[in-house]
Specification:
It is a single chain. With 146 residues, the chain is mainly α. It has three helices and no strands.
């Protein structure tokens, strides 16, 4: 079966009443600019968060290795088995407490960053939705005038 092609007259009669709304490119570009600014702000914040986490982890590792060095001195200088066991027990307890504290600190930094990013994106999404509605309203108003 061969499809029938429409000529200009048929196209004009079929689509003559169809009107396209005008696009406010300035509003679209302003909205896009705000999206890029939000993205850039989120990216900087994420970078700062990773930097903070890295620095905190480096400090934790430095402290941990210092503690291990001190612990080895203490254990090797202990005279009796009881002193060695006591030093080992104390070191394990301190190490566990510091590890838990470090983990809580890392989680807190991540949680804070997550809340900030969520607020940023929620705010931009809300603002962008309002901008899109306003653009649609303007386009409808322009269509009614013509």
């Amino acid at each position: 079966m061969v499809a029938k092609t429409f000529g200009k007259a048929e196209q004009a009669s079929a689509f003559g009443g169809f009107k396209m709304p005008r696009v406010d490119f300035e509003s679209v570009m302003n909205s896009h600019k705000k999206n890029m600014e939000a993205f850039s702000k989120a990216q900087r914040s994420a970078f700062d968060t990773v930097k903070t986490l890295t620095q905190a982890h480096q400090a934790y590792l430095k402290e941990t290795f210092g503690d291990m060095r001190n612990h080895l001195k203490e254990v090797t200088q202990a005279k009796t088995l009881e002193e060695k066991v006591e030093a080992q027990t104390k070191q394990m307890k301190n190490s566990f407490e510091k590890a838990m504290s470090h983990g809580k600190n890392m989680a807190s930094v991540c949680q804070k960053a997550h809340k900030e990013h969520e607020a940023l994106w929620h705010g931009r999404l809300t603002e962008g939705t309002a901008e899109a509605k306003e653009m649609a309203r303007k386009a409808q108003d322009a269509m009614k005038k013509h």
